[in-house]
Amino acid sequence: MRLARETETIESLVPRNATLDSLLRAQNLPQRLVVSAVDAAKIVFDPRQIRTGRPYRLVRSLDGVLREFVYEIDADRFLRIFARDAADPAALDAQVLPFDKQIEIAAIDARIDRESPSLIGAIDRAGENIQLALELADIFGGQVDFNSELQPGDSFRVLFEKSMREGQFSSYGAIVGASISVDGRTIQAFRWTDPATGKAGYYDEHGRSLKRFFLKSPLKFEPRITSRFSRSRLHPIDRVYKAHLGVDYGAPIGSSVVAVAAGTVLGAGYSGGGGNMVHLKHAGGFETYYLHLSSYGPGVHAGAHVAQGQLIGRVGMTGSATGPHLDYRLKRNGVFVNPVSFHARQEPGEPIPAALLASFTAARDTALARLSATLLAAAAPHPVPAAVGTTR
């Protein structure tokens, strides 16, 4: 005998301009249940944060009683609304819960070539996505200018964590170790956590911090410098020779521009020929300028503090400009200097204290061994499963 179905499940995506209230009403739930569900959700989650396109699942009885509502907040958490008392359908509770995830260790060997001339392209060709490229660029941002230094033949070997949910990729965890070969140089990075502070950082093979005072570039991936620092350059619009006291990076309008060092915003506004400009002051008598922006980053205004790598604006072509680009300038003690050559001469980072070096060395050697082993395992041919059958 076939049992009658008692519930039905609706799985879909949040439609445009929907609220939690309208979403539940659209499923023909009674008014009192909708109100109870929204009230329960408000205790643990702001219902105004419901986002278009996010998945949800609703389970209801055939007579319209809500059994469960699950909304995916992001890759890590979900909202669950459920009936706590079968005798009182309007008695609803809500929870925000983490997804069950599994952490896997993976590795890639990516290369720059004619088909993949950028870091993003090389990472994508190796089977991973832009987020891993962004994290790798953050780690090596003080050593490598990904705008100008990548050439065919450069390579990246990376050991990293992947967070999996129900057998599917969810997000990246930490980069455990990496080795990059760029412009004839090999630079290694290893993640190590200071046992005294619990703070993690990235260090080279000798235990020196990879963090530098300046990032090598305020842009991460656009691979072309269109005009270099010069005391006498033919201006493309005025057609006269004058100093060009910065470096121009050609990039699409809207590309992210980040602060090359922590500092304070001295100004964010229109500057005539320089268009929309952000002017930052840093420790040690340094100032940086970011010109021709199309827009400013959130909270970027005079007096605001910014962190290294924080979004401060987006590439544009405001002011005197023949095309979209960023004019980036660096001043030291009141004098403009060549930012490309100055950034290239930065001193090595702070070393790990001698008393803790043995701990770091052990972490480094473990990461190197896992990187090699994981790459070898990925490259090995998969064995053909033996035939299943009876034997005699």
What does this entry look like structurally?
Strands 11, 14, 15, 16, 17, 18, 19, 20, 21 and 22 form a 10-stranded antiparallel beta sheet that branches. A 5-stranded antiparallel beta sheet has the order 1-2-3-4-5. It has a 5-stranded antiparallel beta sheet with strand order 6-7-8-9-10, sandwiched between helices. The protein is globular. The protein folds into 3 domains: 92 residues, Roll (Nuclear Transport Factor 2, Chain: A), CATH 3.10.450; 143 residues, Nuclear Transport Factor 2, Chain: A; 120 residues, Glucose Permease (Domain IIA) (Distorted Sandwich). The chain starts with 6 loop residues before the first strand and ends in a 13-residue tail after the last helix. By secondary structure, the protein is α+β, with helices and mostly antiparallel strands.
Could you outline the blueprint of secondary structure elements for this entry?
Blueprint: E1 7-13, H1 20-25, H2 31-44, E2 55-61, E3 66-72, E4 77-83, E5 92-98, E6 102-111, H3 119-125, H4 130-139, E7 155-165, E8 168-182, E9 185-193, E10 200-203, E11 225-227, E12 230-234, E13 241-244, E14 247-250, E15 256-258, E16 263-270, E17 276-282, E18 286-296, E19 305-306, E20 311-315, E21 325-332, E22 335-337, H5 339-344, H6 357-379
Antiparallel strand pairs: 1-2, 2-3, 3-4, 4-5, 6-7, 7-8, 8-9, 9-10, 11-14, 12-13, 14-21, 15-20, 16-17, 16-19, 17-18, 18-20, 18-21, 21-22
Helix pairs in contact: 3-4
